[in-house]
Amino acid sequence: MKEYQKSKLNRVKRGQKRAVYDVEKINTILDAGFIGFVSYIHEGKAISLPMAYGRNSDKIYLHSSQTNRMLLSLLDAGEMSMTVMHLDALVLARSGLHHSVNYRSVTLFGSVKKIETPKEKEAALYCFMEHMMKGRWDDIRAMKAEELDRTLVVEMTIETASAKIRDVGVNDEPEDEFLPVWAGLVPLKQIALPPISDKKLREDIKVPNHVIEYYNMHK
Amino acid sequence: MKEYQKSKLNRVKRGQKRAVYDVEKINTILDAGFIGFVSYIHEGKAISLPMAYGRNSDKIYLHSSQTNRMLLSLLDAGEMSMTVMHLDALVLARSGLHHSVNYRSVTLFGSVKKIETPKEKEAALYCFMEHMMKGRWDDIRAMKAEELDRTLVVEMTIETASAKIRDVGVNDEPEDEFLPVWAGLVPLKQIALPPISDKKLREDIKVPNHVIEYYNMHK
Questions:
Q1: CATH architecture for segment(s) B16-190
Q2: Domain boundaries, chain A
Q3: pLDDT in tens, A165-190
Q4: Please, how many CA atoms are within 13 Å of residue B108, restricted to the half-sphere of its CB?
Q5: Pairing between β-strand B184-192 and β-strand A196-197 as defined by DSSP bridges
Q6: A15: chain B residues, CB-CB within 8 Å
Q7: Residue B214 pLDDT
């Protein structure tokens, strides 16, 4: 089991029994989603914005237009952090204090660099697209050189990380368990609804297998 | 229509046609969820962590234990920002460049203060619980004085904010519309699954109306 080394930066302070440093488990949480909250400092204030990401090994890829304030600011800083969370259940206890949620969250810390060559950019965008929807890249129109030029691609190398997972039931005070109060979980889940074809779609084109597979895995 | 005044801090830089400053629309996005990504600076680095929140008018309530590093750091700074996002669809275009997602996101900026009196703390926690699940607070065991003591409650006053909404279809280049490539949306939605009673639940206790109503609204 490969683990991120615990340091002052990534050590989980609260709820240490929920802390996870295992690289494979952290990657599984990252691969279960594709939206991360990227943090940066703008004029002395911390801000975070949601961005789509792709992962390949210890690399995270982000992209945007060449003028994106946040990505340019991350490149200036040379480092970034990103947080990903999946909400799995409401945990409804008998007392207010023990209400909670089940979730899987990861916070990554690492260095960032700009991807410079069109070839490397294209490889990063392929990784990004495969992460969002496996099999789509090969079905779409190829990137044009000027589109690659207009795109800013940032590569983060994950240097350290930690995850927190809560996946258990209600944890009330023993003396509260006999109260006439319902307690339990309400599981929450993100699902996909059936694909909706573009209004301008050519009539001869059917929903492709990669989209049907995505829908079947997420419905 | 009441709007947040545009300033250097909250003005949306990219995709201005998607920008929203309307207070009521921003509140609707905040009320559609209860997990926000709170940003703070720790040893010169920007970090964001997910937290549950409640909203009442222009106030946002967060709570944790008295020793929570992030909340103490926000109180030190006297200000915070929080971002909330709902993911609504994958937007699958004919070219890589026009792939996108439909979403509603809000970023809030404001001042923070600690709630000091037990009475005000309890009112904030009531707001918090009502925001997560309407009607639950009145059904659970009342807070004890020592539980209120152990709880750190932070009140943010929203001073400025902006939202971004993308809720349209595929936006391909006109010359790509005749390509033999499927394009369209895959809607995404967070749903609730049927409630699961705690294993230790007294046998005479049924799932209460507030939980059934929540499930019916989110299934």
A1: Roll (2.30)
A2: 16-190
A3: 999 999 999 999 999 999 999 999 99
A4: 27
A5: antiparallel
A6: none
A7: 97
